[in-house]
Amino acid sequence: MSREIATGNTACALAVKAANVDFIAVYPITPQTTISEKLADYAAAGELTGKYLTVESEHSVMSAVAAAAATGARTFTATSSQGLLYMHEILHYAAGGRLPVVMVNVNRAVCAPWCLYADHQDSVSQRDTGWLQFYCASHQEIYDSIFLAYKVAEQMEIPVMINYDGFLLSHSMLPFETLEQEVIDSYLPARQPAWRLHPQWGGTFSNVAGAAEYAAYRHKLAQDTLEALPVIKAAIAEYEELTGRPQPGLVQAGSKGGQAGGTGRTGGEGQADSESQTGGESQAEVYLLSMGSMAAEMELAAAELTKQGIPAAALKLRIYRPFPAEELAALLPAGSTLIVLDRNLAYGHSGGALLMEARSALYNSGKNIKIAGSAVGIGGQDLPVSLLIEEIRRLLEVTKS
Amino acid sequence: MTKEVLQPLAKPVYGAGGPTGTWRSQRPVLDKEKCTGCLLCWIYCPEAVIAREDRAIDYEYCKGCGLCARECPVGAIAMIREGEEA
Amino acid sequence: MSISAKLTDMPDHELIQRGTGACAGCPSPMGLRIVGKALGPDAIMVMTPSCAVASIGMMPKSCYDVPVLNVCFASAGASAAGISGALDVQIAKGVIAGPKPVVFNWVGDGGTYDIGFQGVSAAAERNDDFIHFCYNNEAYSNTGVQRSGATPLHAATTTTPAGKSEGKKSMPLLMLDHAPAYVATASIAYPQDFYKKIAKAKDIKGFRYIELHAPCGPGWKFPASETVEIGRMAVKTGAWALWEAENGALTINAPTLQLAEGKTKPSSLEDYLKVQGRFAGLMKDAAKEQAIAVMAQGIEKELADLLARSKR
Questions:
Q1: Which of A50, A195, C67, C166, by CA, is between 20 and 30 Å from A4?
Q2: In chain B, what are the domains?
Q3: Which of C74, C81, C98, C94 is nearest to A51 (CA)?
């Protein structure tokens, strides 16, 4: 294990280099580009274990990695924003075809108008493609998530998208710890697919299907996507055991008053609370839910609100698909209030995607949880703690009316 | 532990498009006396239903397109309406 | 190396399993039979939405006895590159046993000239290791015969009911200008020429492009039995030219060469057009004679250009 201080994109590239990847295809887009450039440097230095291919569009990137994955290869790519949108057709194809591609999406706003900075509109608009979606709130989570993603993707044969905020994480220099190659290799042995696109295995992949046949495949994918939850939990547990590094859970709670530093960005090492340990005994009355890097500011806001007499705790969603509904409900005491701040807009609805998910997840919880939320930080708008507190206080009033 | 194959796969079989011989309104009939064995019918047949060795025709799948009769240089294949005798 | 294309010497191997979903007289399975014989069983096929996909039959059955990846419409160039590159790595790592199967695309004119153009062009530029076959039936036949970039001037389609007012692109020449190791045109009416070109391409590494002229009965409106004859007429009139280029050196093949050199008179273009219902509108047009003369001039110029290029 060694400690690095580098950008989030470097953390990503270092992990990809160590993950025994067979095939990488890329196309430049800000703020992902420096991942592609780093990987090109590794390829030029002969340090990559696989082929590095520069193609002519993101549609072709996903077409190339999905097809490469069909031969049994472990594949990687990275994109952002418009690039992710341009891949949309092949995202459905990769998931429907049960091709376990792992992709990093460095979150960025979508046009029009053009904007280079972070929000989650790109990735939440890919929600129903069948991909699993992870969100990272620190450089450490970026590094660790690469290995977790391959573990889960290859076991479930479902592709995984790892998301983190453009510039805020992709270009900021922060410390993280890397792993020894032997540890990585023992966690992540070579992919062993049951079928490969190759004459030895044969078969016509993705032929035209009748309704019954098609529905069976798609329902199976939907079911398996849900069944990925325990697999993700097990992958996290195994990773913790192997590395001795505490991992945030599917939904991670900071302690009341936001002192636990569950994001890994505000409070150093301590990531003690997991969803199994908090919940009932936590005495916070107000919970602040978000995804991505703003979890750090939410921690600080929770601490400040607690000081101001509103016992609050931050919750950071790490896994957006499959949505950890029961885990979220377990974290919330009966009668508590949940404030959801989204870095995306749910057009034609209030707030953003996470607010809708949380409402839906808690509707039948029987815990009488009051929920409100709104969209903030769109197009990378700054989220100072003072602004968050103001918005949270406004939303708390909404829940009372 | 053998993993289950989850990918949407199909296997090669005769008749993937159905019993395509039923599409036919005319059938090719070979006159073995006239046949010189040039193999043009064999290579042009889109369905691969003409045997290379003896030009026997698999009527279960022959769609009756008539390409073999049209391309036979010695007129050894006649197209006969289904239901009529050769 | 000499390749025997005698019918008696061609391999028995059949890629096509009889009883396909293709229309009677369809040139796609005809062409794929030749591809299967020339490449053998150690191959991987990539397809994009097309008649060739609509012909497979329904899951869980397939008429193709070769591993197939059916990808999305614009994906052929990149997906074949992905398969080829991933195989190289896994064979080098010893994860998959070699030798490397031949990776090839079987894609129509829509997936080559139009929606797939960018990906095919990029793969050619990168010199990715696979063969791209374009089976050109000069329209989106699968979706009911709409015009494509390969539809010729005056041909009626369901989106050009009065006849197409523009000509087609010169896709094979565009590919030649990407400077790959091998580019060839072929015709369904000349299976031995097609076979020889595939066999030659098989032994070349890098990007290879072969375009097969593939007359479509339902699309062009002629009887199923005429697929080969129409293809032959296209070549004999010069409307479709047979040539190949190895490392940029272009050779015109018989019988196109004899037309280009003026040693053979081209067959009547009007005869070729009038047997195809898609030109029925042109045939009734008062300006028919002039229009056909303009088309013939276009063919003449194209052959002259090919001849000049072959002498470079």
A1: A50
A2: 33-81 (3.30.70.20)
A3: C81
